[in-house]
Amino acid sequence: MSVRTLFWSTTESRLRSGWRLILHFLLLPTTLLMFSLPGALLLVLWPLTTLPSEDSQILVAEILTIVAFTFATWLARRLLDRRSFRSLGFELNRHVLRDLAFGFVLPGILMGGIYVFESALGWLHFEGWAWQAAPAEVVIRGLIVYLLAFVLTGYGEELISRGYQLQNLATGLNLPLAVFISSAIFAALHLANPGASWASVLGILGAGYFLAYAWVRTGQLWLSMGLHIGWNVFEGVVFGFPVSGLNVFRLIQHQLAGPALITGGDFGPEGGLVVVPALAVGALLISLYTRGRRLLVPDAAGSPG
After folding, report:
1. Residue 76 contacts by C-beta under 8 Å, 6 or more apart in sequence?
2. Distance set, CA 300 to CA 28, 146, 157 (Å)
3. Can you give the pLDDT at residue 6?
4. In the chain, is it the N or the C terminus that has fewer CB atoms within a 10 Å radius of its CB?
5. Is residue 300 in some structural domain?
6. How far apart are alpha carbons 251 and 100 in whole angstroms?
7. Highest mean pLDDT: which of 6-10, 190-194, 228-232, 294-298?
8. Percent of the chain scoring above 90 in pLDDT
9. Distance between CA atoms of 121 and 239, rounded to whole angstroms?
10. For residue range 140-170, what is the model confidence (pLDDT) as tens digits?
11. Domain span at residue 81?
């Protein structure tokens, strides 16, 4: 093997997948900085403190981050992968809306099951509804801000993890190893979250496998995105659990008193053993939902152009 072939795939006429992943990783903060500069100029004229709440400020920051990461991934896809952005898993077909809807609703069922289970054991104590403690305008604003924020987060994290990273790893290695490495990276990125522990790392690793399974079954990112969005919305906004250690606006107010090893404690359900049967049931339901579908899993490289 020559020095050139260490970097360049002669059969694909492009950089090898490992180098593409490294360059994409470097592009992410570069484009974020690039988009932040004009954003900083705007802040001189329109400070974030003029926004109605801290939640709104978070939403603006999230929008800038997602725009930057999307541009970085589009650039890497075109110049490094020499493939279309759409071929990452954004093909428009008759399954798109159903995949998004099923993906969004399924975590609601799973989180509802966790809530009922913990309530039945006396570990979770209902205290009231958001509108009983705050004005209607605050509740409505919280709902809108966090729904939008979680849509952006679900799209962005799936674009990077199950989109660019998983698919390029699968091209250079093999699918099982690609799923493990991309899920491990996904878990490691949550280590800095409040309340993170080795149990939460394993839980997020399992969630990475769960989301990757949705891509494997469909060949597209729509189902994975729906699952990711629905998981955060139902876990935090609806049922009031912490979302990977982060406290967000919640409709249901409750107190959690059960063993953290099982419930996940301050990190949320994915930090405890309770997430294991939930992910298993979820994977089974995904398998049933996608059964009989003519699986057109694209080549991990995608289509050129």
Report:
1. 20, 23, 24, 27, 164
2. 21, 33, 18
3. 77
4. N
5. no
6. 23
7. 228-232
8. 68
9. 17
10. 888 998 999 999 999 999 999 999 999 999 9
11. 3-290
Q: What is the pTM of this model?
A: 0.90
Place of tokens 């522990």: 197
In a domain, 303, yes or no: no
Whether 221 is in a domain gets the answer yes
Tell me which range, 25-34, 43-52, 108-117, 144-153, is most confidently predicted by mean pLDDT.
108-117
Structurally, how many domains does the chain consist of? 1
Tokens of 218: 């469909």
Beta bridge partners of 95: none
Q: How far apart are CA 149 and CA 57, in angstroms?
A: 11
Cα–chain center distance at 295 = 23
* Phi–psi pair at 2, nearest 5 degrees: -80, 165
- Length of the chain counted residue by residue: 305
Calculate the dihedral angle through the C-alpha atoms of 123, 125, 131, 137, rounding to the nearest 10 degrees: -30
Could you give phi then psi for residue 46, rounded to 5 degrees?
A: -140, 80
Q: 167 in a domain, yes or no?
A: yes
